[in-house]
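pls design
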């Protein structure tokens, strides 16, 4: 017998005894008896559910722990019984991208977007996969749509990068300037945004300011190094690797 089951039984026995005592006191105590019954049922449900988490939550924990293969298994099992679960579809698409299965990633994320064309997380995930595949212009359109439907403003960092890789340099600079205003963005996004601003700078003061911010967020380079390694066989991964080398050179330069 599990510990949860023993506790549930103890609650049932103890609560049942209290309920019996109250009912023996007469009709006046009947409402108290009903209250005790509600508490007993609630405690039993809580005890029996303790330690159990939905498959999506378990998969998310696996994803965050970098256990991508296990996350895929958990999500595929959930989708076998709940094929229209947008959160599970989105997470599965993102997980497939992490293990380099880009076609499967695109397929699952397109399914999620087909079910709900305004689901910004699915749109953003699809945009990221398209960018890794080298479909930069479509990635731009998809990430822009994600932003239009409530996506976090910090996603403009990836939008700026997609525009840069799509050779839309004027638009990339505009997006990077907008992204730079998000002071609460993650360090790796701030680093890449200011790298782009460094590249686009037309005045030394602009370049110096961008470099200062890059130096403050230099720890974000680890993320981009991991991106370059994970997608080394793709044009995207190769471009990121080249940018990582350039960023390292900039950071190493004397003031």
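designed seq:
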């Amino acid at each position: 017998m599990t510990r949860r089951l023993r506790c549930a039984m103890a609650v049932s026995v103890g609560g049942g005894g209290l309920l019996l005592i109250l009912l023996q006191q007469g009709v006046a105590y009947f409402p108290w008896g009903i209250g005790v019954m509600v508490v007993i049922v609630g405690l039993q449900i809580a005890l029996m559910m303790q330690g159990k988490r939905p498959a999506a939550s378990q998969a998310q924990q696996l994803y965050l722990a970098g256990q991508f293969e296990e996350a895929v298994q958990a999500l595929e099992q959930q989708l076998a019984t709940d094929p229209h679960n947008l959160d599970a579809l989105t997470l599965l698409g993102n997980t497939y991208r992490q293990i380099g299965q880009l076609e499967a990633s695109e397929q699952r994320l397109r399914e999620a977007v087909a079910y709900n064309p305004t689901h910004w997380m699915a749109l953003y995930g699809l945009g990221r996969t398209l960018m890794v595949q080298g479909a930069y212009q479509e990635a731009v359109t998809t990430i822009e749509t994600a932003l239009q439907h409530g996506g976090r403003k910090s996603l403009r960092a990836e939008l700026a990068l997609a525009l840069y890789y799509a050779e839309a340099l004027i638009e990339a600079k505009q997006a990077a300037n907008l992204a730079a205003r998000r002071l609460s963005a993650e360090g790796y996004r701030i680093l890449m945004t200011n790298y782009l601003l460094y590249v686009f700078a037309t005045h030394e003061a602009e370049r110096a300011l961008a470099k200062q911010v890059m130096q403050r967020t230099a720890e974000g380079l680890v993320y981009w190094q991991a991106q370059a390694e994970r997608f080394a066989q793709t044009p995207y991964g190769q471009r990121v690797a080249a940018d990582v080398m350039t960023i390292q050179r900039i950071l190493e330069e004397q003031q």
